Amino acid sequence: MEAVLNVTFFQELLLSTIRMATPILIVALAELYSERAGQVNIGLDGIMAFGALVGFLTSYITGSPYLGILAGAVGGLLINMVYAFCTITLGAEQIVYGMAINIFAPALASFIYKIYFGISSTLAQATLMKVMPIPFLSKIPVLGPVLFNHTIIVYLTYLLVPFTYLFFTKTKPGLNYRAVGEYPKAAESLGINVVRQKYIASMICGALAGIGGAYLTTCYISTYSDGVVSGRGFIALSAVIFGRWMPGGVLLAALLFGFTDALQLRFQVMSSATPYQLLAMIPYLSTLFVLAFLGIKKAGPKANGKPYFREER
Amino acid sequence: MKEFLRMENMSKKFGEVYANREINLSIMEGEVHTLLGENGAGKSTLMNILTGLYQPTGGSIYLHGKKVKIDSPSKAVKLGIGMVHQHFMLVEALTVFENIILGITKDKSIFIKKDAIKNEILELADRYGLDIEIDKAITEISVGAQQRVEILKALYRGAELLILDEPTAALTDIEVEGLFKIIRKLTAENKSVIFISHKMREVLEISDRITILRTGQTIKTLTKDKTEEAELANLMIGKELVSSEYKKVMKTKENILSLEQVSFNKTSKHNGISEISLNVGKGEILGIAGVDGNGQSQLAQIVTGVIAPDSGNVILNTNKIAKFAPIDFINSNVSHIPEDRNKMGLIGNMSVRENLILKSLNKKRISAGKGLYLKRKAIALYAKEMKEKYDIRCASIDMELRNLSGGNQQKIVLARELEEEPKLLVAVHPTRGLDIGATKYVHDKMIDSRDKGCGILLISADFDEVLKLSDRIAVMFEGQVVGVYSGENPPINEISLAMSGKAK
Amino acid sequence: MKLKNTLIKILVPILSVICSFLVGAIMITFIGGNPADAYKFLFRGAFGSTANIGETIVKSVPLIFTGLAATFAYKCGVFNLGAEGQFTMGAVTSIWISTVVTGITGIPLLILSLTGGIIAGGIWGAIPGILKITRGLNEIIVSIMLNYVAVLFMGYLYSSPLREGSVPQTAAVAVKLGRIMNGTRVHAGIIIALIIAVGIYYFLFFTAGGFKLRAVGLNQTAARFNGYSVKKFILLSFIISGAIAGLGGSVELHGTQFRLMSGFGAGYGFDGVAIALIGQLNPIGTVLVAYLFAVLRAGATTMQVGSGMPTSVVDIIQALIIVFAVAGSAFTNLPKTRQFLSNMLSKQNRKEKEEWKQC
User: Fold this and answer.
1) What are the start-end ranges of the E strands in B245-304?
2) Mean pLDDT over all residues of chain B?
3) C334 → closest Cβ in A82, A91, A278
4) Which chains touch B (3 or more CB pairs under 8 A)?
5) Percentage of chain A with pLDDT > 70?
6) Last residue of some domain: B237, B262, B297?
7) Does any domain span residue C304?
8) Which CATH number fits the domain A7-120+143-294, given the four candidates 3.40.50, 1.20.120, 1.10.3470, 2.60.40?
9) Residue numbers of B between 295 and 324 with CB closer than 8 Å to A
10) How far is B305 from chain A (nearest CA, A)?
11) Could you give the ipTM of this predicted complex?
12) B384 in the same domain as B433
């Protein structure tokens, strides 16, 4: 035991934390962009599944995981347009329709996979994205390899956090964006196009969640299988609540969930005697405990989840 | 004076119903033009058309004599039309500053040039005497200050015409004076103001011209100097104003409800009450007068068990209440006409029939076997009886409630709350949003109940209603009762002063 | 008025099913198959023989349970996405009772085991309810997290302490639900499922408790002002919803699977939500839609073997039904559509309409 609990252990744990937190972070940011315009989207898991498939397939065919990520974004965006149309234009209940996406998108992904690879095929493998060590910085002892030896997607995801913060607090489009989620009628009366803003929010959400899914199959594991997402979309959803709809808070939440995931994986490697199922519960249980003990006061956008119609009587 | 804006034959239909029908209106530069009309006369709809929120079904709009089409709110802003809505369009999560610049693209930069814009805004505020605290959050400032932010918001967008929808409804007298000063400064700079109100005194004080709307149509446009209160009232209501006086009764000896030093959320002036002591006698109406948001909601919710007071005693029919739960009050025969019928009283997606029996499910005539069997036939019969008795107009008792008009919805609340012959009725804004006919109906029913011995606590922001019905009048200001007056020949001036916090 | 609403509520799912089959046909053509052929095999698989008809019924049983669980919770305005976890915990408890209880056999053991499933499901369902009413937690997230925990826990049991033999699975249960149709695997579980469905229907629409539960689901504030205990009903709906799902897991174990192994109950929770939504949140509608889903599943393998179309075609059709049904319901609720429909459908009672227009 003592042999494993050394610097390498912590280094690997942190490295793993950052990698595991990445898909949760990017998808939680996707949800943040959606909810800031009042669109609660619980279909993240489904969008991720579709993004994972599209990303994998593109990467498998073209041999480029970068194109895979791009395709994941496009795929996620497109599938989320179904959600956007039904909730924004038709005014369908957002929770219900998010659920529909959770059922529809994985089914479609699985269908496409089976059509492409045939009914009984061996597991197809795609190339994984290579890490891109940042010169000099990655040479810093201990911290270097942990922080600066990742794929470009990881860097971009973490950069998205300050960007999002600046966008929502310091820019005009960001301010207008928030107004739509808080009080759409007021926003409309000031000449902000609420419907368009909600569509844009859904596009951003779809694209980011799609990237989050594609990350799993292009940067994390080299195969696609049904259930590859395994609830990460829902964990991302809780990260938004836990992070109180703020980019910084969401980052902390994602890191926390990434850490528990990394920890249980390390434990699995270390003690093969413990049944892995019990260890694999840790991320889910810790999500529950964190939410239950810290509690959540309603802090989200005021008009979150409510349909908006311009002329209403 | 030159004409700024003209609307010709404007019509707006919602489904089959005309909210506006061939309305004509012209606004001069630098004038204050009042739109006068009852609730539902079509004022708000017309203004929503003018600000681009609604699209008209027919008619045209001319600006400086040129025909324009206002197809979006941003178009209205571009044309110099700004509106201050009755319910403010302010985003509470943002600051005053952020609210003012929302949606503006004056300079090309994506980033907000905070200091430069701030100076610009403060200059503008200075010019029109608009006193604001620019960095505060909306939730931290008073209602009057929020209104000034709204006005500034419109001016900053270059409004030449400012629409003020019921701007004085939530203001104290002093704040109203301040608002009028601002309006006069605006017209002095040749800006036009459309003032929407139904308070005659204010209308005659501030307006240059007055247009009266009734049931969605223009009745007449008058110049202020050539009219008087009685004429306006008659035109607005459409018939001679009959001051239907109900007989007032003397306070009876027995109390149905007593409050002793009751407090809730004491530190809040607008959402709490502070050491209130009141009595409601059997068979009398105690009216609570006061501007909305001085603790009336909390008072109503305490005496119906929805919230529990922090301190003090509530005595209902000689029993001191220990546990506050709506069900206990209902079982002690307390009825409640809540302030927001759609949110608190009724269930929109349930049928008329189901809404009528919400409170009587466990009664013998409704169900058997401790609620394990609902007597469908008996319920239908009962619902039909109520429909007749309370004149509820609906195609069928199975219609979903949300498809009924406000007046008919309120009649369902009345049927449910009055049919059980309550000992105490708590009625909050019982006629808000109702037309004249429905209002009279509600008032008659309340007087009937009183005469049968029911004690009534009437809470209303409509001062006339309180004067008309109350046997005694209590005034609430910032969570306190600042005076109790007789309902017979009430000292109106004294009460008005008390309502604005200037009680002796 | 009421008839019209009911008509729309029935039409929407039917049209969704038709549309989904049409889109499914297009997809089949697109990947080089013959839709008529594929659908022929699909329905042959579901109805082709007594055994097949029976198999379809067997497949419908767990779906009815999770569908009813979702319906019940939603009627009180809460989302129970945790039916899979509750289903699993119900089955886990039954297996555990089967292993540890000695001394009783036969019907008493069966009743004990099913009761255990009900209780376990109820407890698992109560957790999101308690966290919602005491801590204000979002029930969706909590119930989903509990699904993963339950499934992993089951995995732990069949691969370690309750493992039997070399394959990771548990021993078979000691008692089984009786077969009720000759030549098929149809077991008494279908009867239990139908009784529960009728019971829920009765409860929701014929009792004061059901009335109040629906009122809480539609408008919590009004329910509170009218003297209902909102929190009590929310918790109750979670517990009962969980108990229904737990019983479902137990029934599935005793009637069809007999032992726990990888994949037991997988996906039934979300399927239940889909079924409830398509069934317009009506218990009877839920049963019908669950049966439809079972038809699709029972026929899928035959279709794959007969026409070479992968079974995932069926998953797509199922998913499309929910997409269309939810969109359709929203569409018919738009003010403009309502206006249009009421104009179209109410020519006969124009007079009535005139009357309520005035009010």
Assistant:
1) 255-264, 273-281, 285-289
2) 88
3) A91
4) A, C
5) 95
6) B237
7) no
8) 1.10.3470
9) none
10) 25
11) 0.88
12) no
Q: Encode chain A in three state secondary structure.
A: CCCCCCHHHHHHHHHHHHHHHHHHHHHHHHHHHHHCCCCCCCCHHHHHHHHHHHHHHHHHHHCCHHHHHHHHHHHHHHHHHHHHHHHHHCCCCHHHHHHHHHHHHHHHHHHHHHHHHCCCCCCCCCCCCCCEECCCHHHCCCHHHHHCEECHHHHHHHHHHHHHHHHHHHEHHHHHHHHHHHCHHHHHHCCCCHHHHHHHHHHHHHHHHHHHHHHHHHHHCCCCCCCCCCCHHHHHHHHHHHCCCCHHHHHHHHHHHHHHHHHHHHHHHHCCCCCHHHHHCHHHHHHHHHHHHHCCCCCCCCCCCCCCCCCCC
Q: Is the pLDDT reported for residue A139 higher than 90?
A: no
Cβ-defined contact of C225 to B338 (cutoff 8 Å): yes
Residue C172 lies in a domain: yes
Q: Indicate yes or no: CB of A178 within 8 angstroms of CB of B91.
A: yes
What pLDDT band is residue B313 in, cutting at 50, 70 and 90?
A: very high
Within an 8 Å CB–CB cutoff, is residue B83 touching chain A?
yes
Q: Which residues in chain A have their CB less than 8 angstroms from residue C16's CB? A: none
Domain final position from B398, B419, B440: B419
B344 vs C2, C222, C339: nearest CB:
C222
Say yes or no for a CB contact (<8 Å) between A175 and B98. yes
> Could you tell me if B85 lies within 8 Å of chain A, comparing CB atoms?
yes
Closest residue to B350, CB basis, from C208, C218, C358 = C218
pLDDT tens track for B225-262: 888 877 877 787 665 444 557 888 876 778 999 999 99
Q: Which residues 13-52 of B have a C-beta within 8 angstroms of A?
A: 14, 51
Instruction: List, for residues B438-490, the tens digit of each pLDDT value.
Output: 888 889 999 999 999 999 999 987 778 888 899 999 999 888 999 999 888 88
**Other beta carbons less than 10 A from residue B87's beta carbon:** 11
Q: Which residues of A touch B91 (CB under 8 A)?
A: 178-179, 182-183, 186-187
Domain hosting C230: range is 64-280
Closest residue in B to A310 (Cα) is B53
Q: Order of strands across the sheet with B161-165?
A: B81-84, B161-165, B192-197, B32-36, B209-214, B217-223
Q: Give the C-alpha distances (Å, rounded to integers) separating C20 from A29, A82, A104, C29, C241.
A: 33, 15, 12, 14, 29
* Ranges A4-13, A240-249, B388-397, most confident: A240-249
Write out the residue range of the structural domain in which residue B295 sits.
243-333+421-504
- Answer whether A91 sits within 8 Å of C31, measured CB to CB: no
Record: contact B374-C208, CB cut-off 8 A: yes
CB distance C145–A97 less than 8 Å? no
- Residue B73 to residue A190, Cβ atoms within 8 A: yes
- Tell me if B454 is assigned to some domain: yes
Is B338 contained in some domain? no
* Residue ranges covered by each domain of chain A: 7-120+143-294
pLDDT of the residue at B34: 94
Please name the member of B51, B54, B102 whose beta carbon is closest to the beta carbon of A176: B102
User: C195 falls in which pLDDT band (50, 70, 90)?
Assistant: very high
State residue C348's pLDDT score.
43
